[in-house]
Amino acid sequence: MAGLSPDSPLRGFVGYHLKRAYMSIHSDFVASLTHLDLKPTTYSALAIINENPDISQTDLARALAMERSNIVVMVDELQARGLIVRNKVPTDRRVYALRTTSKGIELFLEASRAVKKHEDKLLDGFAPEERAQLVEMLIRIQQVK
Amino acid sequence: MAGLSPDSPLRGFVGYHLKRAYMSIHSDFVASLTHLDLKPTTYSALAIINENPDISQTDLARALAMERSNIVVMVDELQARGLIVRNKVPTDRRVYALRTTSKGIELFLEASRAVKKHEDKLLDGFAPEERAQLVEMLIRIQQVK
DNA sequence: TATTGTTATACTCTATAACTATA
DNA sequence: TATAGTTATAGAGTATAACAATA
Q1: Which domains are assigned to chain B?
Q2: Cα A81 to Cα A79: distance, rounded to the nearest angstrom
Q3: Is the pLDDT of residue B1 over 70?
Q4: Do A52 and A62 contact (CB within 8 A), yes or no?
Q5: So what's the pLDDT on residue B144?
Q6: Which secondary-structure segment (H or E) carries A122?
Q7: Would you call A137 an interface residue with chain B, using a CB distance cutoff of 8 Å?
Q8: Which of A7, A20, A22 to mutate to test the interface with B (most CBs of B within 10 A)?
Q9: A92 touching B, CB under 8 A?
């Protein structure tokens, strides 16, 4: 049997802790959405479409950092569930203008409450300043690029 | 075209920033290891085997949070490359005792230097206290479970 | 020529079930 | 009966290439 801390050589890396924290929060995030039959990606898509009415699939792909080809099937599903609509655009007949339906908005708002609850549980011991400081550092990290 | 911040509805969530920071660092992490033909998982496996001589595949799986079945093929690869050895254990003939070879240790050390460099670049603007504070918060998050 | 949406495909990661040999 | 290692397989998620319609 290995010792109590077989991961000790990795603990010196910030990235290791970042990954573990992300994994941990992600599984709880997924769980908080399953009862609404949403996944992180479909929830994020709803959020972005709702915030950006008439967004195209290409722009949605960019916002979600996904391939356009993979957006198609997800948009198909959201449309089949009546959560969004694909409207034709007269000025450019190649593109679709995506919009949330009232049903989509309702589901998005309910999901947002669930995600909020999940975050509050997650950050239970964090003071507001700590929370802000954490976000600030996370943003700084991704800006190094 | 969407606005400049199509993701604004998601920015209120800490988990969103955590994911983005993780994604960002992860791709750079992967890039820092490719020249040694290592992936995050194989590097971590080397690290854990090196720190825990004679660890079993089952315990390695637990430490890496991977399935035992998926460990097999990875251990096969590390063994085929001469980085680790599978020794038989007389007291329990079901298990293998994994150990890094001198070649494996050498590669691990070189990879560790590469990862260190990657982390230093990533955390360039971070004071030592900030860095410690970040790690402390990340650990706190994953302990909420 | 370039771009949007689309299809098909492949590749990686991960998860599950069933088997064998040992305990 | 339980466990270690193994095999095969299936399911996500993601990436690439090629195509028709339109710009």
Answers
A1: 39-144 (1.10.10.10)
A2: 5
A3: no
A4: no
A5: 79
A6: helix A102-122
A7: yes
A8: A22
A9: no
Please state the φ and ψ torsions of residue B3, each to the nearest 5 degrees. -70, -170
A87 pLDDT above the threshold of 50 = yes
> Considering only alpha carbons, which residue of chain A is nearest residue B121?
A144
How does pLDDT run across A111-140, given as a tens digit for each residue?
Answer: 999 999 999 999 999 999 999 999 999 999
Chain B residues close to A121, C-beta within 8 Å: 144
Q: Which amino acid is at B68?
A: R
pLDDT tens profile B35-77: 999 999 999 999 999 999 999 999 999 999 999 999 999 999 9
Per-residue CA distances from A34 to A25, A37, A41, A123, B145 (Å) = 15, 5, 12, 21, 18
Which chain B residue is nearest to residue A19, measuring alpha carbons?
B22
Span CA (B75) to C1' (D9), Å: 20
Which residues of A fall within a CB distance of 8 Å from B138?
Answer: 14, 17-18, 20-21
How close, in Å, is residue B60 to chain A by CA atoms? 8
d(CA A88, CA A17): 46
Cα separation, B87 vs A133, whole angstroms: 48
Q: Enumerate the H helices of chain B as residue ranges.
A: 14-34, 40-51, 57-64, 68-80, 102-122, 128-144
Tell me the percentage of chain A whose pLDDT exceeds 90: 91
Q: Does B4 touch chain A (CB under 8 A)?
A: no
What predicted TM-score, i.e. pTM, was given to this entire model?
0.93
* pLDDT at residue B9, rounded to an integer: 87
